[in-house]
Amino acid sequence: MKTYINGKTKPLTYKESDVPIEKRVDDLLDRMTLPEKFGQMTQIEKNSISADAIGEFGIGSVLSGGGGNPDPNTPENWRAMVEAFQVAAAESRLGIPLLYGSDAVHGHNNVYSATIFPHNIGLGATNDPALVEEIGRVTALETAATSVRWNFAPAVSVARDIRWGRSYESYSQDPHLAAKLGAAYLKGSQGERLDLPTSVLGSVKHFVGDGGTAWGTTGRYEWVKDWWQTDGERWMIDQGDCLDDEDALRRVHLVPYLAAIEAGARNIMVSYNSWDGLRMHGQKYMLTDVLKGELGFTGFLVTDWLGINQLAADYYDGLVIGINAGIDMVMVPFDHLLFIKTMSEAVINGDIPITRVDDAVRRILTVKFELGLFDNDFTDRPDLALVGCEDHREIARQAVQKSAVLLKNENALPIQADNKTILVAGVGANDIGMQCGGWTIEWQGNPGPITVGETLLTGLTDKLPASTTFAYAADGNFPQGTKADIGIVVVSEMPYSEGEGDRSDVSLSVEEAALVARMREHCDTLIVVLYSGRPRIITPQLDQIDGLVAAWLPGSEAAALADVLLGNVPFSGTLSFAWPRTMDQVPYSADHDFMWPIGFGLTA
Ligand code: BGC
Ligand code: BGC
Fold this sequence. Notes:
- The chain contains 18 helices and 18 strands.
- The protein is of the alpha/beta class and 604 residues long.
- The chain has a six-stranded parallel sheet.
- It starts with 20 loop residues before the first helix and ends in a 39-residue tail after the last helix.
- The structure holds beta-D-glucopyranose (2 copies).
- Residues 65-66, 103, 152, 205, 304-305 line the site of one beta-D-glucopyranose.
């Protein structure tokens, strides 16, 4: 059947599902006014727009930033929130469907009660692409169940300096491992076909060189409202300048993008970092010549949050530079009126060619068609009961167990618990928020019972035999003279994300070192479990420790670690990052004699 609009006789070819996508895009583009085209190039943050305005301006995309949750934060409210925007878009003049995006970077992590998987650094230690693909698949199910069809993941950053607060978003310092796992995740998320209601568009990020920036080079943008301030520790390397020459940039940071394009990448997020002193959002050579030209990327590019604003003190100038460099959609994220108005001016003035606008809109619409958004009723989505379901938590448990890396073992592991006394210390041993890290419920994450999950303490309580005597004190202050067979200390970083997590020194703090020393007094065998978003310098404490386990940021199912500690499941994790002896070995260089090299991991 042909559909007609407003008494016009031209059939709405773009609405006909049997017409090839290219023709549908041509037809739709033909019908669009300039402002409608700018609307499609807009991505707005969900609190910065009303549903009415979505319809009025034909806005293309809405996002939840980190912590962009409905109140109360339930899966039901998420779905209702997203669908209210989708309904509004469907009621716009041309009815172009809306694409909603969120950061589901380790599970659908903004959503209370979703399954939270280990952060990428832990998945790197599993070295298991099939498992990572499965995580991509079930994350997509939970995400799509809330009607979100676009996930700002996977990060394929190749972190080369563990002072970086985003190190944990990186699968590995090795580009080939990051490439392998990033591609696996993307395949899982995007499924057999993008137009299945269970498939979620990935955003491969952040293009390019985000993991290669140098300490002290973070750009400062006085003109960007609320820009994050440094104190000499935070925001010192994140968003900085990548000093690699082109050959090194290609050999290291570009590698995962080749694999991602091969695996079907249709969206890539541009990085905040600069290269050679010029911000990536304005790098026409890398965005257009290399990525869209040489590498043949036919999907669309989205900016990072306020990425355009960083390009120049004048918004107009920044927008002209960015769009002409090859950006297709702008994560505005606050002021769509300013964006649309400035785009109009730039096109009228001839500073942005209309051909560039058409190319951008064509790319966006093509992916929307590929996702089946025009053909499937958006109410056709997976069951909400999948969010945080037992099957998904079981996959998370496997990931926790496979990501644990045994670094030192002097007859400490597996724990022989029968008839033994065991003391456990460390606040992280019993804190859901700390085991999840940043990008969990809130942008920065938070300590405390922030979502549904199980801690290592719960796992031990459940799994230890009845003959074991067991006590826990977060601060390790057991009564003087207490002596146990075994002590377990969880040493954990406080949650952080992005530049808030930049640190000049990743050694144990004075308090953490004191906790290890205190527990040493209380036990014959001391086991340290590290929860961290990067290797920590632990050389000064090593003599005190009999068993050392790197458990990264395990997510909601940290209880599963108990099975590995108790020998019910073998250790199999291997380092995807070399482990430095001292801060002198940071950033990485091939000449360093590391404490433990990449690939290292003992079996108990
Ligand atoms: C981060 C991205 C993220 C985006 C949306 C930015 O600050 O750099 O990784 O996808 O925000 O939350
Ligand atoms: C948002 C994040 C975003 C960050 C960027 C936060 O307020 O929640 O999504 O990445 O700002 O600076």
